[in-house]
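fyi for ur records
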Amino acid sequence: MWPHNINWGWIIAGIAVVLSALSFWLTRRRELAWKRTEFIFNESRYLDNDPELAEAIYILEGRHPDIDLTDIFDKEGKLEESERLAYLQKFDKLFNFFWRMCYAHLTTRTFSKKEIEGFSWYLYRISLYQSALEYCKENGYEEINDTIEKLRRDWND
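which gave:
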């Protein structure tokens, strides 16, 4: 038998509070996911619309007929020093882009593994060039290297 002194008002209020908190949490989670999506899409537009980033991606993907990443990141490359420095500036801009993504994934954990995998092709291409990895390490882009190491396990499977 039910005890007669149960205060049903408090139980119903407690259930309402729990349901309200759960509803708030689920709504907030969807809002944050949408904000992350907006951020990724807004940032990704730069890859398409910024001519310097587009050229850096073109080189990174190995599609440039005359320039290879080794020409830019190896000091013994075929480029004149002033030209090499100009390309390094373009890659700094590209690495800043990837650094933000990797930082959001590794440090703040606001990007999931699935979200960072959307950029894994570019990170994979960077990983093919030891000189580019060393450049990242020496110039404050360690999160790029760390993310590459995390993703490398999946690439090898």
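Helices lie at 8-49, 51-60, 69-73, 81-106, 113-117, 120-127, 130-138, 142-155. thats all i got for now
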